[in-house]
Amino acid sequence: MAAKSLGYRVAVLDEITDGPACSCADLSITASFDDLDALARFAEAVDVVTVEFENIPIGALEFLETRVPVRPSASVVRTCQDRVLEKEFLQNNGFPVAPFRVINSAEELAVALSELNASSILKTAALGYDGKGQISLKTGDDTASAWKQLASPRAVLEKRISFTSEASVICARTHEGETLCFPVQANVHRNGILDVTTVPAQLDPIVLQKAQEMTSAIAAKLGVIGLITAEFFVMENGDLIVNELAPRPHNSGHHTLETTMTSQFSQHVRAVCGLPLGSVELRSSGVMVNLLGDLWQPGEPHWELLLRETGLFLHLYGKREPKAGRKMGHFTLLSSQASLLEARAKAIELRKLMKPGAGLEKIFERI
Ligand code: ATP
Ligand code: MG
Questions:
Q1: Mean pLDDT of 134-163
Q2: Is 192's C-beta closer than 6 angstroms to any atom of ligand 1?
Q3: Can you list the domains of the chain with their CATH numbers?
Q4: What is the Å distance from ligand 1's center to 256 Cα?
Q5: Which of 93, 170, 265, 342 is at a distance of 20 to 30 A from 50, taking alpha carbons?
Q6: Per the confidence metrics, is the pTM higher than 0.85?
Q7: What is the rounded distance in angstroms from the CA atom of residue 180 to the CA atom of residue 160?
Q8: Residue 280 CB: number of other CB atoms within 10 A?
Q9: What is the best residue among 52, 97, 189, 190 to mutate for testing ligand 1's pocket, by most ligand atoms within 8 Å of CB?
Q10: Which ligand 1 atom is at minimum distance from the Cα of 120?
């Protein structure tokens, strides 16, 4: 949508028919990511390729790279789609990460858990998202059954960090090496899934600056062209630990559609197309809350509650099946910086009330 609004024609290659991006594509190719004929046709049709998520087989991106610029490159995507490579990249370049061990077997898991000697999280190396593919472990737990349950050939065991808050920074980097960070945003997760994001993060200015500088340094070290998002754990003393990276627009940046001069989506298009980056100045502070499929139980949510609200922007992604834990949409509530906390409480309350059966029916009856 951001590319279209800049006047570009868009081609989409996806494995599923009628994927969400197809509705704004001028050309849609449905093919497996290892179908070289389809990849060749796709490369022929476009001037530049980008990715919407990082779990694309690297072979497909490497093939495309022989024909057309791929931004971010296959090597950046490879690092970010594998927790082991990502953590090793961060650690080898001096970026702080949680203590971790690479795990290839139940035996290695048992050794690692006793070495870390702390409450830990076992995470699959590949294909994890929204807290899926993660198991909490503490000293003395049954590592053999945890390994079996994870059912993954490779994983990392990571020490559970006692952070005071979580934050993320989205940084754009051009092919000329210019970087520009969006304002730091504060994130709260529930059950491993992003729940609420507040911008700007209410943190010490020194911590904010450090988070942006670290994200720019990561972008430069990786050599990303496009966006890179760094997720951070913020410690009580202001230290930062990098949790993970995403080489693309990020859920915690969806509010930029309304809160900043340039949205993260538009910035991504600018960076991959070689255009000047846009201003990331805040137009307004705001709060974004995610809408998960759970809200559709036992029926359609009360949309009118949101639609009546001034300064509230609702985005639904058109997913047909509202499954529990599935991200169906989000809304952003704008506010002044002074009343950001009240806006946050209000946004969470609105989400609670829009769920069918949450008591709103009684209020309507009274009216
Ligand atoms: P996504 O891709 O949606 O961000 P993910 O499945 O890759 O999620 P992580 O970012 O690794 O998952 O973890 C999700 C959340 O779980 C974190 O944002 C944090 O709240 C919690 N978490 C993960 N690792 C740790 C840790 N080592 N210590 C404490 N909390 C953690
Ligand atoms: Mg994460």
A1: 96
A2: yes
A3: 2-80 (3.40.50.20), 99-159 (3.30.1490.20), 165-366 (3.30.470.20)
A4: 22
A5: 93
A6: yes
A7: 31
A8: 20
A9: 189
A10: 27
